[in-house]
Amino acid sequence: AAMYSGAAAGPPRRDFISVTLGPEEAVGVGGYNNSKAWRRRSCWRKWKQLSRLQRSVILFLFAFLAVCGVISYTSMGEAWKSITNKSLDDQRTEQEIPRLKLANPAVLPAPQKADANRGDYPELSLQKPPKLPHVRHGPSNLHIKAPQRDMRLKTRHDTMRAVEELVEVDKVEKTEKSIISWRGAVIEPDQSTEPPSNKITEPEKPSSVETEDQKEPVPINERQLAVIEAFRHAWKGYKDFAWGHDELKPLSKSYSEWFGLGLTLIDALDTMWILGLKEEFEEARKWVENDLVFDKNVDVNLFESTIRILGGLLSTYHLSGDSLFLEKAKDIGNRLMPAFKTPSKIPYSDVNIGRGTAHPPRWTSDSTVAEVTSIQLEFRELSRLTGDEKFQKAVDEVMKHVHTLSGKNDGLVPMFINTNSGQFTHLGVYTLGARADSYYEYLLKQWIQGGKKENELLEDYMRAIEGVKKHLLQRSEPKKLTFVGELAHGHFSAKMDHLVCFLPGTLALGAHNGLAADHMKLAEALIETCYQMYAQVETGLSPEIVHFNLHAQKGHKDVEIKPADRHNLLRPETVESLFYMYRFTGDKKYQDWGWEILQNFNRYTRVPTGGYTSINNVQNPSNPEPRDKMESFFLGETLKYMFLLFSDDIDLINLDKYIFNTEAHPLPIWVPA
Ligand code: DMJ
Question: Which CATH number is associated with domain 224-261+364-667?
Answer without folding.
Answer: 1.50.10.10
